[in-house]
Design a protein that fits this description.
Blueprint: E1 2-5, H1 11-23, E2 27-32, E3 37-42, E4 59-63, E5 83-85, E6 88-90, E7 96-100, H2 107-120, E8 124-126, H3 144-157, E9 161-164, H4 168-174, E10 180-183, H5 191-198, E11 204-207, H6 214-226, E12 232-236, H7 254-261, E13 266-268, H8 270-274, H9 280-290, E14 294-298, H10 316-332
Parallel strand pairs: 7-8, 7-14, 8-9, 9-10, 10-11, 11-12, 12-13, 13-14
Antiparallel strand pairs: 1-3, 1-4, 2-3, 5-6
Helix pairs in contact: 2-3, 2-10, 5-6, 9-10
The chain binds phosphoenolpyruvate and manganese (II) ion.
């Protein structure tokens, strides 16, 4: 439930409410907006049954929160959250593009890519060091060696870096290098992994599971947030449907639905959603128009030779054109790219 305070509430009234709730063994989450102050309550409400919270000084009303996710819920936090990755702000007035190869293949490839995407306007470099491939015989990633190349690319370009983690061990290793963890679609409900990254304060890009509902996705975010890490950015990357023309089906409606249900920023990954280069520009524009906070785009210096996801990767020139194409659309929706 949430306790909505009156607009003229003073700090000591807020403190009194919080102490009473916490004295009953429940957790509180204070959200101070420009208009209203909200105290979110997590735990067994029945412990407050004899408290008459409505009658405390400064309390306006009590609103039940029926959804199982609380910290990720817009009712708990009415203002949109901004997540800082290095010095890049996600969820504000900038439309953020993260780009880079599906997998880090060698030092030259990642460093060259970092320079070209930066020139085009990307603000964050992506690259996979641990690759959760469908076949165990496909390239599995360079692991820590790849992370070192990514860190070198950051040193040269200043771009913060995001890498996927797939196991508890990879979290421990990647934490030494990355500015943002990525949880891939296949691990969205790997709850032990989610809890582990929840114990760090490194921002997380949480991809939607292949067949996950929006509620399941927000509960996955809740797993991370409930451990203390509130720096979560959601990423819609297409879901499994009956359609085979594209690799997955981009659920564009997830953007306004998430904006209504949650305060967390949302990214769109049209590369994995479509699996096909020719559709990326249209869906990037659609995502921007629908209210996404940014995009993740796979870029490879030579997609024909990519060790993974070549058919959906843009060569640098196409990526540059995409950024140019998006700029006037960003301006139209009041964002800067
Ligand atoms: C990726 O971003 O490289 C990736 C594997 O994506 P997803 O988890 O969305 O399939
Ligand atoms: Mn990929």
């Amino acid at each position: 439930m949430i306790i909505v305070m009156k607009s003229n509430t003073n700090e000591s009234d807020i403190k009194d409410v919080i102490s009473l709730v916490e004295s009953r063994g429940l957790q509180t989450h204070l959200s101070t907006g420009s208009q209203i102050t909200i105290i979110g309550v997590i735990g067994d409400k029945s412990r407050l049954s004899d408290c008459n919270i409505e009658l405390l000084n400064g309390v306006d009303k009590i609103v039940p929160v029926t959804e199982s996710y609380k910290l990720a819920n817009k009712k708990f936090h009415t203002n949109s959250s901004i997540v800082k990755v290095g010095n890049v702000e996600i969820g504000g007035s900038d439309f953020i593009i993260m780009a880079g190869p599906c997998a880090i293949e060698n030092k030259k490839q990642i460093i060259e890519t970092a320079h070209t995407i930066k020139k085009s306007g990307a603000k964050i470099l992506r690259g996979g060091a641990y690759k959760p491939r469908t076949s165990p015989y496909s390239f599995q990633g360079l692991e820590e060696e790849g992370l070192k190349y990514m860190a070198k690319a950051r040193e040269e370009t200043g771009l913060p870096i995001v890498c996927e983690v797939t196991s508890l061990k990879s979290v421990e290793t990647a934490a030494k290098y990355v500015d943002m963890f990525q949880i891939g679609a296949r691990n969205m409900q790997n709850f032990y992994l989610l809890k582990e990254i929840g114990k760090t304060n490194i921002p997380v890009l949480l991809k939607r599971g292949l067949s996950a509902t929006i509620d399941e996705w927000l509960n996955a975010a809740e797993y991370i947030m409930s451990e203390g890490n509130k720096n979560v950015v959601l990423c819609e990357r297409g879901i499994r449907t009956f359609e085979t023309a594209t690799r997955n089906t981009l659920d564009i409606s997830a953007i306004p639905v998430i904006k209504q249900k949650s305060h967390l920023p949302i990214f769109v990954d049209p590369s994995h959603a479509t699996g096909k280069r020719p559709y990326i520009n249209s869906l990037s524009k659609a995502s921007l128009a629908a209210g996404a906070d940014g995009l993740m785009i796979e870029v490879h210096p030579n997609p024909a030779e990519a060790l993974s996801d070549g058919p959906q990767s843009l060569p640098p020139k196409d990526f540059d054109d995409l950024c140019d194409e998006l700029r006037p659309f960003a301006k139209l929706v009041g964002k800067t790219l």
